[in-house]
Amino acid sequence: MAVKCYRDLTVWQRAMELVVASYALASAFPKSELYGLGSQLKRAAISVAANIAEGHGRMHIGDYMRHVSIARGSLMELETHVLLAERLSFIKSGQSRTALGLSGKISRMLAVLLRRLRVRRVGSTGSSLTPSP
Q: In the prediction, which pLDDT does 53 show?
């Protein structure tokens, strides 16, 4: 199946699942963390999905790669927030395992996407990006 839109990307779909999971995790945090760690966790999750979408919409492979790299960074930030929430006993280890497992899958998918984009960049005569990765 050809990718016509960022919504067709499995990695974006998984990132959206992670946003939902992150919101569920943050809802278990104490009220005092509503604007603290909970907000940071949700922001990082949103950033992963948003950067995948934005990168796909860019017209140059280099821009796409940069946004995928930013998405990976946000994913590592999210993992740090989840681990910290567990250490602070805001969530149980089972909850963190679920989120971290999904994060791991997304991380591997982003690594594959970056590799494929690098190959396309090296193999292309120009730096323009066609609509499907």
A: 97
Q: What is the CATH number of domain 7-123?
A: 1.20.1440.60
User: Angle at the Cα of 108 (from 103 to 80), degrees rounded to 5?
Assistant: 35
At residue 110's C-alpha, the angle toward residues 108 and 111, to 5°, is 65
**Are 75 and 101 within 8 A, CB to CB?**
no
Residue ranges of the chain with pLDDT lower than 70? 1-2, 125-133
Q: SS3 for 128?
A: strand
pTM over 0.85? The answer is yes
What does the mean pLDDT of the chain come to? 91
Domain ranges of the chain: 7-123
- Closest listed residue to residue 99, CA positions, set 17, 34, 35: 17
pLDDT at residue 132, rounded to an integer:
41
Q: What is the 3-state secondary structure (H, E, C) of 72-116?
A: HHHHHHHHHHHHHHHHCCCCCHHHHHHHHHHHHHHHHHHHHHHHH
Q: How far is residue 18's CA from residue 66's CA, in Å, rounded to a whole number? A: 21
Q: Which pLDDT belongs to residue 130? A: 45
